[in-house]
Structures are given as structure tokens and as C-alpha cells.
Amino acid sequence: MPSFEHESPALTNVLPTCLADTLRPTLAARVLKVLARHGVAATIARRTTCCGQPAYNAGYESEARRVARPTVRALAKSQGQIVVPSGSCTAMMSRHWPALFAGTADETRARDVAARVIELSQALAAGSAPPAAGDRDKPVAYHGSCHLERELGERDAPRAALRAAGHEVREPTEGYLCCGFGGTFAVKLPAVSVAMADEKLDSLSATGATTVVGCDLSCLMHLEARARTRRLPLQFRHLAEQLTVRGDE
Amino acid sequence: MNDVAVRFVTRADRELRNDRVRAAVRHTTSLLAANRSTALDGLADPDAVRDSAHAIRRRAIDTLPQLLDRWAARATANGIIVHRARTAADAVRVVLDLADAQATAGHSPVRIAKGKSMASEEIDLNDALEAAGHEVVETDLGEFIIQLAREKPSHLIVPAIHKSRFDVAELFTTDAGRPIEPDVDAEAAYARARLREAFLRADIGITGVNFAIAETGSVCLVENEGNGRMCTSLPRVHVAIMGMERIVDTWAELDVMLALLARSATGQALSVYTNIISGPRRDDELDGPDEVHVIVLDNGREAIVGTEFDDALLCIRCGACLNVCPVYRNIGGHAYGTVYSGPIGAVLMPLLRPDDPASRELSEASTLCGACTEVCPVRIPLHDLLLRERHRDAPGDASRLRRVTFRLWSVAWAHPLSYRISIHVVRAILRLSSRVPKLARRAPGWAGAWTRDRVVPRVRR
To answer: Which of the listed CATH numbers 3.40.50.1860, 3.30.479.20, 3.40.50.12280, 3.30.70.100 matches domain A129-242?
Structure first.
């Protein structure tokens, strides 16, 4: 398979996302490492903020626009694909930005960026095959996040990436059910949100795997916060973290 | 937080604490969702059928006035009496007048046997009929159960989804005045005997309508228990109530809709009874009512046509979106406080009742996970509609505190530098508060809403 770099001279940009900036500042570096392994040379995008989704999904379009504008402008200056380690942010940018910025000075920029955004696992699938994995046959439970699976329709790429790294991928029953995060939903309807997390945690635990991998920090943050309250022996890792785990970490 | 939001949260929390209801709802919705999935796979090309169904419904909404006129002209020629009701009160008035006519003819009290009809629930018909002194018996088993419980349906298709056989035995025992065992067969036997009596004595049968068919001026009614056929054939008068959008042009279109309706609702290839009513009993026929009335109900629907929300009118009330909704599965239908619940209820109620804050707030009853949109047989973009409703309503409805919060947040994150600084502040707050979990649990507002049952998110280096 040809190396990705030769096809696209422009450096791939990585948008770290606001949740990674807050909770896992090293995630973007891990994303670069994983991308490099798949033959994709990338750099972390500068002068970006957030995609605006928290406000957009709560109903506040002008606030969402205000927050997303610097990100749109920063990314519009780049060329080539923009990799986002979140299905939810990717969907916000690719599906909703054109409408959010329609009729504004940034409409063209938003459309341009929307067309170049790609979620991390999709970028891995489009890259070259990674080096053969060691015999790490540790099972992991995969949590397919709603926006990745349904807004972007991406079901295969994350699972394939985990299998290529030597993992047995286990699926929770009724895996399509949401984990209950839903942005401000988690605090507007906290008890419902927690009940949904519990249903998800029960089905994840039943897989027998102790590591849960997902492509959205938002779900993972929510599930981890509830799992620790229930003292469940589960650990939660973003795909980029799982693929860059060292030794017995 | 405003009062309206508190009300939905409060209802949802109350239903959440009812473990019996939650277990019953989760169990049945999981079963129905799995059945649906298997049944759809039984079609040669389910996606193509759904595309076709979407196009049929879309065309019906785009040409609704003409289609209704065409249907009404044929129906009238067939001897059906067509009534147009702009409001719920108008529709109730039509039924009350028909009942009064029976009373005047000497059939007093007027006995009414009802088939399952969400439109009749929407207009609170039973309350009005009973207040006027008429006897109403719901003859769909699930509806009969909730009538005895004096409740509203908690699911579009399975109105008593929240009731276990033990709940049903209690209700039947009270109704019968003798013990009815909590055994499904015993319960069914009791209901059968009790309802047969209601069919035989009924002066008026009232049902809903699944689809009107313009081509022949007919109405189609699907059901599984045979009670609908009884209600439409035994009493002297049959009154059918239909939402004005529930219409197709031709029988070929009906065929497509029926291929999806039962599969999406219960996983059946076809419901047990498919009734087509094209007019009253003719002179050479033995069975059938002397009069057939169809009430075409607007009640807020026409105002939705032509707006960015009118895909909501494509709905065929199969309930598939309820069964896959993680919110509905946990709180059940009553928490919504409206006649329609689940994702379609959350979409529809803010449109049907744009002036009612309790209906508007239902667009919050979703994580926007999109499971509803994925299963909708007529491809209504349900979660996108919920989002658009939030864009329409949230800024105006929100409390001052919430508006100010979003405003401050957006100002802080409008520049890369202030964004960086605020991220460091948030990290520091999270780190500190995770050291004092007991204090964090008592934090006010949204922070406390997170920490009550969840630890503070872990911040890594």
C-alpha cells in the first residue's frame, strides 16, 4: 500500500478537542503517534478552541458560532485533511457547521473545513497498514459512540484498528444504546443520564473485558465517572490511548 | 432553573424510582426492538421500501389539501359522513352530538365500544363522553387495562406496557368483584367475556384510523385482537377519528405502508386484522353499521405543514422510535406528561402545542443519540427535528441564569488565549473538587447535578 504522505503533500492537522485539552492534554500527541504508525504525517492545529457543539445542541446557535469561529478560521488556513479524535466533534463540524455559518462571513471557510474533517479511526483506515502487532490478545470491550456510529455511519474502522493491534474486540449487548452523556443532558436530567450509564456499564461489564475503548472522550468521561462511583473494575481508554499503551500500562 | 424544566425532571425522576415499571418497559421495548430488526431483515430490500414509504408520505403532506378533498369526495359518495374538526373541542362536539342523537332515539344511556385510537386520547374523548353520562368501554386489551387504572397510554402501540400481570390481576379483580388470578390466560378469559358483552350492547363504535385511502374514499384500520372489527361492524353507528395527515393516495401506496407498519411496530409481517371500511352497510349486506362517520382532526397539524418541521407529519405511529430510545426505556411514557411520548412525542408535542411550555420542554428529553432516526420506517430525521426545536425554543425559554452561563462561556472561548486560560482554570477546579468529594456532591446547579451520582471527572497530566 502506498504511503499516505506521497498522495497528499499537505500536512494533516489534528484538532485536539476541548475535552482532551481539559482532561487528557497528551491525547493529541498520542494521536500524532498513531497516525505516524499508519503513515500519516500530522501536526497539532494551533489557535483553535472548540467546535461549539455544547451550545449548539443545547439550542444556542449564536453562542455556538462565537465559540466555533476561531476554530473555523484557524483550520481554514490549513490544507489537507483534519483529523479529530472524536466522532461527536467530527459530526458537528462536517454535518452542522455549514448550516451554523450559512449567511455569515465564515460560510465558505466552514464549508471548506467541513469537507476536510475526518474522525481518527477513519483516518487510520485510510492510511497504510500499521506494523504487525505483537501477540497482545487482551480482550477489550468497544463502546461505539452514537455520533460516530450513526451521524458518521462509522462502525468498522475503530474495531478494525483494535483488531489490527492484536485485540479481541467484545461487544456489549444492545450496544447501540446511548451511554447517557448527551452534553448538557447529563446535568439537565442527571438521574436519567445515570440510569442510562448504569445500563451501559452493566452490559460492558458482562463482556468480561476490563478495558473499555471508545472514540469519544465525552462518553468515556461519563462512563468512568459513574463506574468509579459504583467501584466497578473497569478502565476506560480512548482509541488513541489504547493504541499507544506502553508495556503493562 | 425554570419551573417548566423542573416539572419534566420531577416526573422523570419519579418514574425512574419505580423499578417495576422500569423493568417492564425495558423488557418489552427490547423485545419489540429485536422483533422489528428481524422482521425488517425479512424484506428483500428494507432500505428501498423505507425510501419509497418516505416518498409516499412526503407527497401526501405536500399535497394534503387536494388529497383530503379527493378522499372526502369519494368517501361521501360511498355514504360516509365526513366531519372536519379544526380543534379538539370541535371533534369532541361531533361525537357528543352523535351520542345525543342515539339518546334521543331512545338508547339511553348510550353505550360506546371503543377501539384503540391515539387521536381520541389526544382530544380526551372519554372524559367528555363520561361527563355527558354515556358509557364508554375500551375494547383493546391494553386500553381496557389502563381505562380501569384511570391512566393514559404509556406507549403508542402497547398502552399498558408499564403494567405487569400482577397489576392487571388487581385491576381485573376490582372490576369483576371476584378474584382474578395473576395468570395471563385467566386474565385474557375475563377480558374476553367482559368485552364481548360490551360489543353486543354497543350503540356506537369508535375507532382510530391508520390510513385513509383517497383512491376509493376508504379508511384502513389495523389491529391484532379483532376488537376493531367488532367496533366497526356490530354497533349501529361507527365513528372513526383520524389525524388529518394520515392519508395515502392509492392502494398501491397503502401496500407499501402496511409492509412497514406492523414490522416496525411489533415485528409482525402483517397485523392479524386489516380492516378496510369504505362505507355503511348496503341494503344487500347483512352486517355493518347504518352510519359511518369519519372525523378529520386538525388540532395543530395544519400549522406544521410547510414549516421546516413538517417531516414530523410523516409519522405512521408504529412506536419503533420509542422502543430504541434510551430515555423512553428508562422513564416510560407517563413521564412525558403528554399523549404522545418517546422521540416522536418529544418532536410532535412542541409543534402541536407551540404555546404550551410543558410541551415545548420535551425537546430536552433526548441525548440526540439518533437511535430513533435510524429505525424510523418513513425516515423522519427525529433527532435533527429535536435539535431544530431547541434552536427555536431554548434561548427564549431558558432561565436568565442559563442564558448568562452560555453567554459567558462563549465569550471566554471566543479567543484561543482566553480559551487556554479557562482550560487551566477548569482543570484546577476539577482537581481541587475531586479531593473533596463530599463537598462536590453538594455543589449547586449543574455541577451538583453531575456529582450527586458521579465522581468528578479525572484530570490527567
So the answer is: 3.40.50.1860
Q: Which candidate, B121, B53, B49, B88, places its Cα nearest to that of B311? A: B53
* DSSP per-residue letters across B347-377: HHHHHH-TT-HHHHGGGGS-----HHHHH-T
Bridge partners, residue B273, by sequence: B223
Phi, psi of B387, deg, nearest 5:
-65, -45
**Homologous superfamily (CATH) for B64-299:** NagB/RpiA/CoA transferase-like (3.40.50.10420)
Whether the CA torsion B322, B327, B331, B334 is positive or negative: it is: negative
For chain A, the 3-state helix, strand and coil shares in percent, each to the nearest 5, are 50, 10, 40
Tell me what pLDDT residue B253 has.
98
- What residues of chain B, 57 to 116, have a C-beta less than 8 Å from chain A? none
What's the pLDDT tens digit per position in B374-431? 999 999 999 999 999 999 998 888 888 889 999 999 999 999 999 999 999 999 999 9
pLDDT, tens digit, 9 for 90 and up, residues B203-238 = 999 999 999 999 999 999 999 999 999 999 999 999
Written as nine digits, the cell of B188 is 385474557
Please name the residues between 315 and 354 in chain B that touch chain A, using a CB distance below 8 Å: 324, 326-327, 329-331
Q: Which residue has the cell 378469559?
A: B189
Candidate from B365, B369, B460 with C-beta closest to A146: B369
Half-sphere exposure of A66 (CA within 13 A, CB side): 15
